[in-house]
Amino acid sequence: MSWYKIIFTREQIQAGEQLRFINEVSELLKRAGAPQGAAVFGDSLPDENWRVAEYFSPEAARLLNILILRRGGIACEKPARESVALSVGRQTAWELLNP
Fold it and tell me: What does the pLDDT read at residue 27?
């Protein structure tokens, strides 16, 4: 499985949808035992629309596939380490972004 991303619009962010979704993802990954390779990284997209992308590691995407697809998630490239923040996962998840 590859990396996946979900993009949240400014309206969705203002309505709290992104935060609720991240909290749900965090809870689901905790219930799954917080697997080492399961992580979500967030990135503010550099445009005038104030969108945010949440990137799911391959392991997180495997565990949360149905949830990601229901939210319109799409396969993508691994995000650049310097442009993201860890939204959900262990601190060791940063290693997933190494070249």
Answer: 96
Pull the structure tokens for residue 92.
């060791």
Q: What pLDDT, on the 0 to 100 scale, is given for residue 46? A: 65
Distance CA 88, CA 14 (A): 20
Where are the chain's structural domains?
A: 3-89
Report pLDDT digits (tens) over 42-63: 998 767 778 999 999 999 999 9
In whole angstroms, how far apart are CA 27 and each of 1, 2, 37, 46, 80? 22, 22, 16, 29, 25
Question: Over the Cα atoms of the chain, what is R_g?
Answer: 13
Contact (Cβ atoms closer than 8 angstroms) between residue 96 and residue 37: yes
Q: Please state the three-class secondary structure of 19-33 as a single string.
A: HHHHHHHHHHHHHCC
The SS3 call for residue 36 is coil
Give, as one character, the DSSP assignment of residue 1.
Answer: -
Using the structure block, give the residue that is written with the tokens 């149905």. Answer: 66
